[in-house]
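Tokens in:
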């Protein structure tokens, strides 16, 4: 659906996006994840045709966004971080204006407006002034304008910023509904948001793509270390002796607890599903009762922090040219 190749954007001496290459498949909800200032909004503005690149190429539905901008933009609906709303209009008036600007045929206008308002849940406030709507409803109107014209791709830049917890839940549910009919690219610096609504994740840091995959795949990439927490009825020294020589175990920390129990933390490079059994059998062989044994789950936050810390601080030298005159 979208092919991004060696995309770079510079503002003078500052490089906001550097040598990005990735593919967006049809019918998938993507999370574009990174801290503030990582280059997410810059990249999304380029994909939406609102900003020119310094180097590289972007094709959307087979159309080069620089050589065929009109055809490419017709494939995309875009909600920037600050929705482009006219406060003196009602949602119905505003969406009618946007639809006409997008070239929606007059004969389809009413049907498209009704559908966009129904999907986003703004029908009930369609005739109220936008300035009088809550932040959540304004965001819904912004999403409604993005899906007018039935674009193949919907790009949402930080769609839940400034919303209260209930509004965030509602917008996330709306994004999941959109994912049934559109390819969705959602930018966020909120890890739980990406995990809640996205099928795949693109991680960006300092303008570079540092990882991509499903949330589960990225969690498994964290340095290969797997941590187990164990409660056993024995002395700390006995627990350590039983476990520290197992293949794959790199460290065992054991401390005395209440009632003759030991609380142990085992670090291992063995991520296999049977590692739980190996630990349990090692303790059982020494007749040590196991009261608790659980594998600690790595969070997407841990993965992102680890990947970000691994990134070099200095800029890499430029390796290639791109489309000149695009800045």
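Residues out:
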């Amino acid at each position: 659906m979208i092919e991004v190749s060696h995309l770079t954007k510079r503002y003078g001496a500052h490089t906001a996006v550097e040598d990005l290459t990735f593919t967006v498949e049809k019918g998938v909800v993507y999370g574009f994840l990174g801290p503030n200032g990582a280059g997410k909004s810059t990249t999304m503005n380029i994909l939406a045709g609102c900003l020119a690149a310094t180097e590289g190429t972007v094709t959307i539905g087979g159309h080069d966004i620089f050589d065929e901008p009109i055809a490419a933009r017709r494939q995309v609906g875009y909600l920037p971080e600050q929705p482009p709303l006219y406060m003196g209009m009602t949602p119905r008036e505003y969406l009618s204006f946007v639809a006409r600007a997008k070239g929606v045929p007059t004969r389809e206008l009413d049907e498209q407006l009704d559908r966009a308002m129904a999907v986003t849940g703004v029908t009930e406030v369609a005739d109220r002034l936008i300035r009088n709507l809550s932040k959540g409803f304004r965001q819904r109107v912004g999403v409604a304008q993005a899906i007018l014209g039935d674009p193949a791709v919907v790009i949402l830049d930080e769609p839940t910023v400034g919303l209260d917890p209930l509004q965030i839940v509602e917008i996330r549910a709306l994004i999941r509904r959109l994912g049934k009919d559109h390819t969705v690219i959602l930018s966020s610096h909120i890890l739980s948001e990406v995990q809640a609504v996205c099928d795949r994740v693109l991680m960006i840091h300092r303008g570079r793509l540092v990882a991509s995959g499903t949330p589960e795949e990225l969690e498994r990439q964290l340095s290969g270390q797997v941590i187990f927490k164990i409660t056993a009825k024995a002395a700390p020294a006995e627990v350590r002796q039983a476990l520290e020589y197992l293949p794959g175990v790199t460290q065992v920390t054991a401390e005395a607890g209440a009632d003759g129990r030991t609380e142990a933390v085992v670090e291992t490079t063995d991520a296999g599903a049977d590692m739980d059994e190996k630990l349990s059998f090692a303790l059982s062989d020494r007749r040590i009762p196991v009261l608790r044994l659980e594998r600690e789950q790595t969070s997407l936050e841990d993965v992102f922090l680890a990947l970000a810390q691994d990134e070099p601080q200095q800029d890499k030298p430029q390796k290639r040219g791109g489309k000149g005159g695009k800045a």
